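Dock coenzyme A; give full complex structure.
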Amino acid sequence: MRHDYEVSCASPSLAVAAELLAVDAVSLCDSDYSPAELAQLWANDALRVYVARCGRQLVGFCACLLTEWPWGRQLEVDALGVVPEHRRRGLAKRLVAKAIRKARGAGALWARAVVREDNAPSKAVFRALGFASGDVRDMLAYECRQRDGTLAPGLAHMGWERIEAKHSGNGWAEVQVVQTMAYRGLWIEGLELPPTSEGLGVALVAAILQHAVECGVDEVGWLAPHRGHPLRGCARAAGFSAHGRYRYWLADLA
Ligand SMILES: CC(C)(COP(=O)(O)OP(=O)(O)OC[C@H]1O[C@@H](n2cnc3c(N)ncnc32)[C@H](O)[C@@H]1OP(=O)(O)O)[C@@H](O)C(=O)NCCC(=O)NCCS
C-alpha cells in the first residue's frame, strides 16, 4: 500500500504532546512524563520536535536540543522513534534531515547523536545521513532523583559549564545541563585529570554530583571512554551504574 507522509516542525501543545508520548511508548519507551508535563517543558525550554504524519496520524518524531558550546552551537538529536508499521520507509532519515536543515539555519556547526551499539536501525539512519561514529564507550549514569513521571521543580540553569576540583593538583569537567523529553540531566562531556590522582578524581566526582543536585536534575550521564580512564573507578565507587555500550555519532554542519 502506498502512503503519503508529511514531515514538519511541531509547535508545543497538549494534543501533540499526547501523540508524541503515544509514539514514544511503541518505539523508544523513554519518557514517563504526562502530556501536560511534556507540553509545559516543551513550551519553556530549548526542545525542538519534528514529526511525521500519515494523514492525521502522528507516526514518527525526532526530538532535538540546541546546545551552546564555547566554540558554537550544536544540534543534539536526542530522541527518534517511528511506529513499527511505518518503519523502513525513510521516515527517520527525513526527520533527522529536517532537524539538520533547521539547525543549520539557526547557526549550528555540529550535529550529534548518542546511539546504543546494538541498535542497527538507528546506526543505519545516522550513517546514511553522513554522520561519523566515534569509539565505543560505556554509558555510566547516576540517579539523583527517582524518576516517578513528574517534572523536577525549577531548573537553576541550563547550558555548558566547567567544574573544577583541587586535591594534590587540578582537575576539571565540562558538563551540560539539559532538559530532554524524558528527563532532566547533567551530561559529562569532557574531563581533564592527572592519571595518578585518585583523591582528585573523588573530589571531582563529588563536585559534579553536588552541582547536579543544585541544578535539580534527575540523573547524571557519562559516556566513559576506555577502561583505564582514571575517573571510571571513582564514578563507580560514587554510585554510577553501567547501562550498555554506546557511541557518539557526529556530523559537521559548517
Ligand atoms: C531507528 C528507527 C527510528 C528507524 O526508523 P525508520 O523510519 O524505519 O528508518 P528509515 O526508514 O529512515 O531507515 C534509514 C536507514 O536505516 C536502515 N534501516 C532501517 N531499519 C533497519 C533495520 N531494522 N536493520 C538495518 N537497517 C535498517 C534503512 O535501510 C535505511 O538505510 P539506507 O538509507 O541505507 O537504505 C526505528 O527503527 C525505531 O523507531 N526504532 C525504535 C526506537 C529507536 O531505537 N530509536 C533510536 C534511538 S537512538
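Observed: The pocket of coenzyme A is lined by residues 27-28, 80-82, 87-93, 115, 119-122, 124-125, 128 (CB under 6 Å).
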